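Example record for the data management plan.
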Amino acid sequence: MANLFDIQLVFTEIPGILAYLPTTLYLTAVALVVGILLGFVIALIRMKKIPVLNQLAIAFVSIIRGTPIIVQLYITYFGIPIALKYFNYYHGTNFNINGIPGIVFAMVALGLNQAAFDSETIRSAIQSVDKGQIEAAKSMGMTGGQVLRRVILPQAGTVALLPLGNSFINLIKGTSLAFTCSVVEITAAGKILAGRNYRYFEVYCSLAIIYWVITFILERILALIEKKITIPEQPPEEKQRKGKKLKEISE
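Corresponding structural encoding:
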């Protein structure tokens, strides 16, 4: 019975797994940047209702949000080489498909998945900005870019911070599926280590501890950032005082 669970092994395996943490963080960082940038573009396309692009954006978001991430990873890993083979055949090129690292496919799949979810968050955050403030900024002579930078993005960023932060945390956990693209990150490394002594349960406990610590740290960082950028709500008496003062000035 004593050999059923070795709690000491749970902690002794952690250093070996952490050796692959940079791969997980690098994959997460690239997918995060791709997701936010592409998500912002998709959000603007949908808000502006640009012909053709709007329909394509709606279809893209629907397909990505409606299919599991592991399926998207498999389709990316096997689909891109097939597409490149057709490209080589019809264009007479000789692109080295086998030279593409597996992490590239994982970045593409995770980045596109992140973009679909982030686009909805960003779109909702932008739409939450008071239209009166936007019109007031335009009446003061601000250009569209100035309105976006000075009025829309600061307020929308505050609204979108927590949803984007939660999406970021989910992305870190989603990298655990990158083994489907032959990427050795911390989860794949854990499986390899467990295969040496067949102590899979202890290794999975090690992985759970690592992911929990990373998530806990990120949650605390996000809470601090939110506290810094959130504008405290004024008490009713202060609002009434400022309202009377503005009324006096206008009269």
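Summary line stored alongside the record: The chain has a mean pLDDT of 87.
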